[in-house]
Design a protein that fits this description.
By secondary structure, the chain is mainly alpha-helical. The chain is 56% helix and 3% strand. A hairpin with a 2-residue loop joins β2 and β3. The structure holds acetyl coenzyme *A.
Length: 381
C-alpha cells in the first residue's frame, strides 16, 4: 500500500461524534450545526451531547452541572506538586503533567464500569480548568483560589484565573468559545487520544497524551503565534508586504490553512463575530484592523489554494480581550477539547482494536555486529 504522509485522507476509524464538510465550511456535533449550538447551548450541555450522544433532558443537565461543580476542587497534593513546577515553564506542560497526575489519585482502570467512566468524565471536565487557573496564580507566586459554587462553569474559570468576577457578557462569550473548540473529528490530538485509549489505559493518560499533542505550533499552539504575527505586522498597510515575504520564504501564515477546510473555518467566522461583540462592549483591540487586513490580503494570495483563516486566527483576539494571558490560549483550548477527547475515548472503547499501523522500512540491509576496534570511521569507508 502506498505511503500517505500525515495519513491525509486515510480513514482510521468510524465515528458518530462530529462531521465536517471542508468544501461547504460546515461543522456539526452529533448532527447539530455548530452555529446553533454556539448560540443556544452551554459548554456543559455541549460536552454532555458529545460524550453521551444526545442532548440531556433538564434533569440530566442539572445533575451533570451539579456533579461537575462538586468536583471542581483539586487535591492539595496536586496543588503542592504544581507549586514545584518552574514558574517559567509553559502552562501546557504544567497542564499535561497535572492531568496525568490525576491518574495517580483515581486510576482503577475500571473502564468497563459505567460509574467509573461517568466519574472520570466529570472529574476531567471539572478539574482541568481549576488546574489551568491554579498554575497561572502559582507561577505569579500566589496561592490558587478556590472555585466559587455560586458561579457557573465559565464564569467560575474566569474568576479563578483573574481573581475577579467577570461581566456576564464576557463569561457567556467565553462559554461560547468553549463550545466552538469542543470537538473537531480526528485531528492530531484526538488521534493521539484514540491511540492511547486503544491500549485500554486510564482516561487521565488519554487526556494527558492529547494535551501534549495539542501543544504543538501546527495544532493548538498556533493561536499564541497569531497575536505575535499581528504585532510584528503592526499596521494594516503592512499586511500585504508581510504576506509576500512570508510566502516567498515559504513561511506558514499562522492561523491560516487546515487539512479539512478549503474555505474559511466556520468557527473562525463565529469567533470573529464574538470578537466584535466584545470590542463593542469593552473597546476595540488595535490588532483587529491588522487581522482583517491580513485576512483580505491572504485571500488574494492564498485563496486559490484553499487557505483561509482557521479557528486559531481570531480566538487570540477574543481571549486577550477577556484578560487571558497569551500562553494560556492553548490550555484554554484544552479545557474545551477535553469534551471531544472523552467522547472519542468512549467511542474507541465501544469498538476497540489497538492501533498498530505498519511502516515502510528505509534503513540499511541486514549486517553483522563487529567489535569496536574493528569499526571503520566514516573517512575510512
Ligand atoms: N500559510 C501559507 N501557506 C500554507 C499555509 C499557511 N498557513 N498552510 C498551508 N500552506 C500551503 C503549504 O505551503 C503547501 O503549499 P505547496 O503545496 O505549494 O507546498 C500547501 O498549502 C499544503 O500545506 P500543508 O502544510 O501540506 O497542509 P497540511 O494539511 O499538512 O497542513 C496545517 C495543515 C498544519 C494546519 C497548515 O495549514 C499550517 O501549518 N497552518 C499554520 C499553523 C496553524 O494555523 N495551525 C492551526 C491549525 S487549526 C488547529 O489545529 C486547531
Amino acid at each position: 500500500m502506498a505511503l500517505r504522509p500525515g495519513l491525509e485522507g486515510v480513514p482510521v476509524t468510524q465515528s458518530a461524534i462530529c462531521d465536517i464538510d471542508g468544501l461547504k465550511g460546515t461543522l456539526t456535533y452529533r448532527g447539530f450545526p455548530i452555529d446553533e449550538l454556539s448560540v443556544h447551548s452551554s459548554f456543559l450541555e455541549t460536552a454532555y451531547l458529545l460524550i453521551w450522544g444526545d442532548l440531556p433532558n433538564p434533569q440530566q443537565l442539572r445533575d451533570f452541572e451539579a456533579e461537575v461543580q462538586m468536583h471542581r476542587r483539586v487535591s492539595f497534593r496536586v496543588r503542592d506538586m504544581m507549586k514545584c513546577f518552574p514558574a517559567t515553564g509553559h502552562p501546557m506542560d504544567a497542564l499535561q503533567s497535572s492531568a496525568a497526575s490525576l491518574g495517580l489519585f483515581y486510576s482503577r482502570r475500571a473502564i468497563d464500569n459505567p460509574q467509573y467512566v461517568y466519574d472520570a468524565v466529570v472529574r476531567l471536565i471539572a478539574k482541568i480548568p481549576t488546574m489551568v487557573a491554579a498554575f497561572q496564580l502559582i507561577r505569579k507566586g500566589q496561592d490558587p483560589i478556590q472555585p466559587r459554587d455560586d458561579l457557573a462553569y465559565s464564569a467560575n474559570f474566569l474568576y479563578m484565573l483573574t481573581e475577579r468576577e467577570q461581566d456576564p457578557l464576557a463569561a457567556r462569550i467565553f462559554d461560547r468559545c468553549l463550545i466552538l473548540h469542543a470537538e473537531h473529528s480526528l485531528n492530531a490530538s484526538t488521534f493521539s487520544a484514540r491511540v492511547t485509549a486503544s491500549t485500554l489505559t486510564d482516561p487521565y493518560a488519554v487526556v494527558a497524551s492529547a494535551v501534549g499533542t495539542l501543544a504543538g505550533p501546527l495544532h493548538g499552539g498556533a493561536n499564541e503565534d497569531v497575536l505575535a504575527m499581528l504585532e510584528e505586522i503592526g499596521t494594516p498597510t503592512q499586511a500585504g508586504t508581510y504576506l509576500d515575504n512570508a510566502i516567498s520564504n515559504k513561511r506558514k501564515i499562522m492561523g491560516f490553512g487546515h487539512r479539512e477546510y478549503r474555505v474559511k473555518d466556520p468557527r473562525a467566522t463565529i469567533l470573529q463575530g464574538l470578537a466584535e461583540e466584545l470590542f463593542a462592549r469593552f473597546g476595540k483591540d488595535e490588532m483587529y484592523d491588522v487581522a482583517q487586513a491580513v485576512e483580505k490580503e491572504a485571500a488574494l494570495r492564498l485563496g486559490s489554494k484553499g487557505i483561509y483563516p482557521n479557528v486559531d486566527f481570531y480566538s487570540g483576539l477574543v481571549y486577550r480581550k477577556l484578560g487571558i494571558p497569551r500562553d494560556l490560549f492553548t490550555p484554554v483550548f484544552a479545557i474545551s477539547r477535553v469534551a471531544g477527547w472523552l467522547a472519542h475515548w468512549r467511542e474507541q472503547l465501544g469498538a476497540n482494536r489497538i492501533f498498530r499501523p505498519s511502516q515502510i522500512y528505509t534503513g540499511v540491509n541486514l549486517r553483522s555486529w563487529v567489535p569496536a576496534e574493528e569499526r571503520k570511521t566514516a573517512s575510512e569507508t
